[in-house]
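Protocol step 4 of 5: obtain the predicted structure for the target chain.
Materials: sequence only (see below). No template structures provided, no constraints applied. The aim of this step is simply to have a reference model before the mutagenesis design in step 5. Sequence pasted as it appears in the construct record:
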Amino acid sequence: MTKKFDLLLVDDDDEYARDFALLGQEVFNVYRSATGEEALKKLQKFEPDAVILDLRLGSGIDGLETLKRIRSQFVELPVIMVTDYASIETAVEAIKLGAFHYISKHPNMKALHAIIRRELQQISWKTLFIRETDKHFGSIVASSPVMKNIFKTIQRIAYSNANILIQGETGTGKELLARAIHSQSPRAQLPFVAINCSALPFHLFESELFGHEKGSFTGAIARKKGRFELADGGTIFLDEIADLNYNHQSKLLRVIEEQTFTRVGGEKEIKVNVRIMAASNKNIQDEIKATRFREDLFYRLNTIPLKLPALRERKEDIPVLIDYFTKSAYAENKIKNSGFTNQAINKLKNYSWPGNIRELKSFIERTIIMHPDKRIQPEDIELGQISSDIPVFFEKFLRLPYPEARTRVLMEFKKIYIAELTRRNGGNITKAAGEAQIQRSSLHRMMKEIVMNDK
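Step 4 output (structure tokens):
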């Protein structure tokens, strides 16, 4: 049986309201208010699927004023206006105030019900689509109010050419945000070129950014285009901009201001058209006070500032991210799993996640690999806590034969070492492998070895 729509009918005509409810009872559950004020009070107690609102009400506030007040308090609630006095002017005004539709009462009641039912079915699909897509923006997954506000900001600024400075802790998704803005802009089909300023070799700064001519220095065996030239027409993303050498900052400032440069060893001035986005995990205002960052460069980059909150500041997003990363991990590792219990998710929500989203992503993948074919429980979750009681750790192995004890101690050590290693590196597997001085593939192999041993 098809679910009925719950309607709040706001109409002062008793006979009309009775006929509307009687003839639509197979499709609608109709609740009625005779005045706008009464309707607003009812909406404080329950939320219908839609409000059917008459333009002209016998007493109190009229339909348009009622619509205005509903829209100010219940932003997403569908309101369909009905009236015997339809006109272009009132229809336009109603739509401007946020009515989903404006329908004349003139059709017979069955025809009117069919129109309303069709509109509500469309609204239901639209609402479902909006609520689901509202959790995603490009590759960014979120449902918290603070991130939804950032999504709205992206929609407003994407079509401009203004420079953008994104600040936030490591692992919060600054490059993802920059890519999302680029993908919504008129430059979306043109290059997005990312540069990690902290990884730029000092002596190759100009060559990397502006290119070089053949023979301009030892090793320059051919002409090379720089990153700015490669990004022409698109977006250039300067990640970890605060780590850029102070002298190099002045050279970058000139290019940002004039969008012209000369290749190393060249004489021809090259003109480009690029949008500049920059990011930093440091507080650039503090860097300016410490004379490590140029104030004029900051103001040039900071036309539109964006601040990405840490994951601990938007814990509402953790369940959505867990679901997203869990599905990704299943697909990537071809592992069957039933996800996380609510108790496990609550445990994860109470963790501070110093490595932010990057750490969460790595944790989800690691946990699923280590616990295949099961639903993750709170006791399955290890967030890198290490016991300092070393004698107790060894005690359970002391009565075993030496070969077996050595194997089991090594396996236990691997489990603790990997958990702490990945926690310390904010969940970044590549960095963790680098610190351990092993290949990333070796680290994955060790993790899978632990899984097989636990079976």
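Step 4 remarks: The two ends are 46 Å apart (CA to CA). The chain has three domains: 5-133, 142-309, 314-454.
Proceed to step 5.
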